[in-house]
Amino acid sequence: MTIERTVPEERSPESGRPVGFRVQSGIPPKERGRAAALYARALARDMAPLVGGGTNARRGATWVRHAMRPESALVILDKRGSVAALAGLSFGEGGFLRPDRRQMRRIWGRLGGQMRWWRWQGWPAGPETAALVIDGIAVAEQHRRRGFGRALVQAAEAYARATGRPALRAEIAANNDAAIRFWSQLGFQPVARLHGARLLFPRIPADVIVMERPVGTAPVP
Ligand SMILES: CC(C)(COP(=O)(O)OP(=O)(O)OC[C@H]1O[C@@H](n2cnc3c(N)ncnc32)[C@H](O)[C@@H]1OP(=O)(O)O)[C@@H](O)C(=O)NCCC(=O)NCCS
To answer: What is the 145 CA–ligand 1 centroid distance (Å)?
Structure first.
């Protein structure tokens, strides 16, 4: 699926006309490393116990690179063809990330990998749904507040409509206020709060807010 959109405030210096950008499905092979790094960096706060920051960031990106399903994503490429934004998609049979325990041990060592594996198992899973789940959305910092996030959600909605999905769903770390404002702005309403296992990292809030928006009403604003 390819959707042509235009960022109104971005204009070609030569013609003065708006420059379009495209939302496309699937991460191009040469962009997978960059996409993984963007996803890991943007969601590091939400997934801190898994990907971490600082020196752990590189390993977090490596982990995402191995765990992600590149075909289950919508991406926006910048003018040079680099990933500027991406949204993972989940169709009900597993999420955008499909971690492998052995791989986690390889990346973080026996104990570090095992702990992260348990942590992953304790991550609260959303209730069964026929909705199209947007499984993490990440816009590169230099491209934020230009409508890229909105364009990805609009493209996901078009896809959900075309495939007969009744709703769009997002699952957001309960302490990610900016993201909750973003989803609310796009017409998503909270439908559930999930409590994650706090066993291994008791001080890290693990709650998740599930937000949904029906497909078939007015399009995503
Ligand atoms: C959240 C995120 C995806 C938004 O992407 P974006 O491209 O900047 O969002 P848009 O420009 O499409 O914003 C659409 C609307 O959402 C709201 N919004 C976006 N970012 C916001 C923020 N940081 N604080 C409050 N409202 C925000 C605004 O109303 C905005 O419209 P406006 O700019 O006309 O006021 C981006 O900030 C990001 O990658 N954050 C880090 C990762 C993350 O937290 N992801 C969500 C977890 S699932």
So the answer is: 6
pTM for the full predicted model = 0.90
Residue ranges of the chain with pLDDT lower than 70? 1-20, 48-55, 92-93, 196-206, 217
pLDDT at res. 13: 66
Rounded to the nearest angstrom, the distance between the alpha carbon of 214 and the centre of ligand 1 is: 20
Whether 178 lines ligand 1, by a CB cut-off of 6 Å, is yes
In 122-138, which positions are buried (b, 16+ CB within 10 angstroms) versus exposed (e)? Answer: bbbebeebebbbbbbbb
Q: From atom 27 of ligand 1, which residue's Cα is the shortest distance away?
A: 182
The CATH H-level superfamily of 2-166 is Gcn5-related N-acetyltransferase (GNAT) (3.40.630.30)
Ligand 1 within 6 A of 189 CB?
Answer: no
